[in-house]
Amino acid sequence: MGRTRKSRVVVAEDRPLTPEEAEAAAAAAAYAASEADYAYYAEEEETGETAPAPSLAEAIAALEVCGDATRAEAAAAYHKVARRYLGVPVPLIEDMARLWREACTLEERIALARGLWASDIHEAKIAAAKLLTQARMRPDDAAWELICDWVDGFDAWAIADHAASAGARRLSADPARLDRVEGWLGAENMWTRRAALVMTLPFTKQNHPTPAEAAARARVLEWCVRLAPERDWFIQKAIGWWLRELSKHDPEAVANWLAAHGETLKAFARKEASKRLG
């Protein structure tokens, strides 16, 4: 099941907010109160009901029919990215993507996801990611390549996080793909750098990690060291998020990381990282 986020405003440390920080704090509050309710690890049950595989035009038309102009206007104002918004709620997009996924062969699904992403419609991009969000996918090389093609174009948290959820499943299936993800740490695009952390969240989840999982976990902790000096709110949030999730299963590793590197984080990110440490 997904997790419901409680609304929370990030406040700067013991001083008035600068205009830039105030804008980031407002975005953070909206993010926390939004529909960002992602199920990274729970696999949906297949219903057994199938329908004909939709064409790209049919899939976009289905999204359009479910749109809401008021919601679309609010989404455009919040994301501040020049693209078309339909105003379709995420749970409804998930329902449509599930039906399309069941109706399509893997090749058809990848082709549909590619077309939906290329449409540059906000909800279509989310649907594209949802089409590829599946733990058991064989073969999955084409899906992984498509997700990697999307990463450089990430420009807003909702689209980036939904696509990262799909990518996380492919990383879990083949941890050797971390070599490619590590290259994103030097990307000019902040959202691409952030994706390296969000996409590796599954490696925080094991109480008894395999050697490969333990190695991946140690590797990403070093990535957190590399990214921690960045002042961008979303990078700091991602580091705090990653460490908090790890602390549920390996609190000693997080405590050691914070003792060595915690001062490089902003106060809110340190608080996020240490929330489960007591």
List keywords for this structure.
mainly alpha; disordered N terminus; 278 residues
Could you walk me through the main structural features you see in this protein, from its secondary elements to its overall organization?
The chain is globular, with a radius of gyration of 19 Å. It is mainly alpha-helical and 278 residues long. The chain contains 14 helices and no strands. The model is unreliable at 1-15 and 33-47 (pLDDT under 50). The relative contact order is 0.08. Helix 10 (190-198) packs parallel to helix 12 (233-247). The protein has helices spanning 19-33, 56-65, 69-79, 90-103, 106-118, 122-131, 141-151, 157-173, 178-182, 190-198, 211-227, 233-247, 251-261, 267-274.
Compact description:
The protein is mostly helical.
Number of helices: 14
What fraction of the residues are assigned to beta strands by DSSP?
under 5%
Structural class: mainly alpha
Main sheet: strands, sense, barrel: none
Q: Which residues form runs of ≥5 with pLDDT under 50?
A: 1-15, 33-47
Instruction: Round the mean pLDDT to the nearest integer and report it.
Output: 87
Helical content band: 55-70%
DSSP, total strands: 0
Distance between the termini: 25 Å
